[in-house]
Amino acid sequence: MNTLYITGAGVSAASGIPTFRGEDGFWTIGSKNYTPMEMATRAMYENNPREFLAWYYHRFATYRHHGPNEVHHWLSDKNLITQNIDGLDGKAGNTDFIAIHGRLDQMTLFHHQGDDVMAFNAPWDNVNEDNLHNSLLEVFNINNESPKLNESFKPYVLLFDEYYTELYRISEAQQRMLDADKIVFIGTSFSVNITQMALDIARSQGTPIEVVDPDPTHVFHPNVTYHKMTALEYVQQQG
After folding, report:
1. CA 118, CA 185: separation in Å to the nearest integer?
2. What are the angstrom distances between the C-alpha of 22 and each of 9, 155, 179?
3. EC (predicted)?
4. Contacts made by residues 26-30, CB under 8 angstroms, sequence distance 24+
5. Other Cβ atoms within 10 Å of 183 Cβ, number
6. Is the Cα dihedral 181, 182, 188, 192 positive or negative?
């Protein structure tokens, strides 16, 4: 059976990375002046890269040395699309997973959305935390307080006011959904576009789905099985 796994922040909780919408989640913690939903935007990166990069560094890059947990290792040989940018599936050995929202450990040239660019390793270890704001601007090649197209760099992450492009392997992700005999959602709140896309395809194809979550979101689908448990409990049950 060709089972497609689609994972969210709940999968990385056992690695010590906060889920996005829990009490300690990334989207409940903002900067001094902006909410997370305002911070995680292309507009903020373009207009206030100093604040954007500092927020991104504190909220994401500080977790870059965390390691994969048992769930990531179980998923290491699976057909996988993850919403997580932590890169832990790669650290666990999955060589063909789709990081549909980007990768914390990578960055790209700052480009018009849809342009053909490559992602490459982000030099986070070159950041000087004693002079954080200026150091981040230097690392991302930003002068005069605003990034320049095709000169500056941008974290390889899909922001709220951006859309899925081939940089994020969106066509391949859709094809994997179409080809799947079953789709298993693990640790996701169904609050992002990619899960809605998968649900729409599953409904149109008649593909059975499973939802793994301690407090699962009810989804409209004629053939759904709920597993009211953590991701870790689920993979231990699967063996």
Report:
1. 28
2. 10, 24, 33
3. 2.3.1.286
4. 26/59, 26/60, 29/59, 30/55
5. 27
6. positive
- For residue 111, count other CB atoms closer than 10 A to its CB: 15
Burial of 129 from C-beta contacts in 10 A (0-12 / 13-18 / 19+): exposed
Which residues make Cβ contacts (< 8 Å) with residue 196, sequence separation at least 6?
190
Contact 212, 187 (CB under 8 A): yes
Residue whose C-alpha is closest to residue 152's, from 49, 56, 38: 49
Catalytic residues: 101
Q: Indicate the angle between helix axes 49-59 and 132-139, nearest 10 degrees.
A: 100
- pLDDT tens per residue across span 134-172: 999 999 999 978 999 999 999 999 999 999 999 999 999
204: pLDDT strictly greater than 50: yes
Residue 52, C-beta contacts closer than 8 angstroms, at least 6 positions apart: 39, 44, 45
Instruction: Count CA atoms closer than 13 A to 97's CA, side-chain side.
Output: 29
* Tens digits of residue pLDDT in 102-114: 999 999 999 999 9
Tell how many helices (H) and how many strands (E) occur in the chain. 9, 9
For the CA atoms of 152, 56, 5, 227, what is the dihedral angle to 10 degrees? Answer: -170
Residue 204 has a CB neighbour count (10 Å cut-off) of 9
The secondary element (H helix, E strand) that includes residue 91 is helix 88-91
3-state helix, strand, coil in the chain (%, to 5): 40, 20, 45
